[in-house]
Amino acid sequence: MFNSILKQCTLSCTKQIAVPLQFRCLSLSSATLKDNKDSENNTNEGWLKKLLVRRIEPTKEQHSRMLSDKEVIYELQTHNVRPDSTDNYMKNYEQVVQLCQKIPNLKYELIGSWSVRVGDLDQYVHLWKHQGGYAEIDKTNTILTQNQEYTKLRNQCGQFLRSRHLQYLLAFSFWPSIELKSGSNIYEIRSYSLKPGTMIEWGNNWARAINHRRSNDEPFAGFFSQVGRLYNVHHFWCYKNLEVRTQTREAAWMSPGWDECVAYTVPLIKEMQSKILHPTPFSPTQ
C-alpha cells in the first residue's frame, strides 16, 4: 500500500518538473546538436541553441598560422598621456615618425595614428607594420636602440606618459586588405578578450560575418594578438561620422544571417570595449 502511494507521488512530481528537451543538455559537440535537432522533429531552432559554442577539433598546426600570414606583423602601441602634456607628446611622437621614415633599411611603417575621443581619454593609439616576420622586428629594435636621436626622443616621451602598452598582432586573413583613407573620417576600435582556445571559432564565424559589414567601405583592419595580452581581438572600422556609424550598424542587423553570427560569437567573449578614434594630423590614414 505504502509503496503504491510512493510510486504515484514520484510519477506526479516527475511530470510537474519535466524539463523541456532543448534545455536538458548544453553539450558543445556537433553530435549532440544533431541529436537534439532530430528529437525536435526539425522544428525551428530556439535562441538558446544559437548560443552554443561549436566544438573545435584538436590540430597539430598553430592556430595563428591557420588564420593569418605570419610574415607581416603589426605593432599596436597604446599610450596614456598626462592631461597637461598632450601637445608636447604630439610634437614628440611626430618627430619619432619622421625619424623612422629617414632611417635606411628600416622595414617599419606607420599605418595609423589616432587620439581617443570616446573611451579612455588622453589616450593615443598607433598602429605600425613590420614586413619580414619576427626576424625583421629584431633587426628594427636593434637599429632603433642604437640610434641616439631615437633614444633621446623616446626618453623625452616617457616624461609625458602615465602608462603605455604594446602588442604584436597578426591580421585576420579573411578581412579586406588595409587601404589608407583620405578625407575626414572617424574610426572605431572594438576590442574583445576571448576565452582561451576559442580563436579558431571566432575566425570561423567572422569569416562569414564580415560579408555583412562591407557596405560603405567600413572595415579597416582586423587583428588578433600574438605577444602582449593574449586572446585579444581588435576590429577597426572607418566611418564618416557617428551618425553614419549608427545607420551602418543598424543596416547590418537587417542583413539575413548577421544575428546568427552574433549569437555564435557572444559566448566566446569574456570582455569587450569600444573606442571612437580621430586620426592625428601626421597619421598616414585619415
Automatic annotation (TrEMBL):
All residue ranges annotated as the NIPSNAP domain in the record: 74-131, 187-284
GO cellular component annotations of the record: mitochondrion
Matches recorded under SUPFAM superfamilies: Dimeric alpha+beta barrel (SSF54909)
GO terms for biological process, alphabetical: mitophagy
Parts of the chain that traverse the membrane: none
InterPro entries per record: Dimeric_a/b-barrel, NIPSNAP, NipSnap_domain
Family: Belongs to the NipSnap family.
UniProt name for this protein: NIPSNAP domain-containing protein
Organism the protein comes from: Macrosiphum euphorbiae
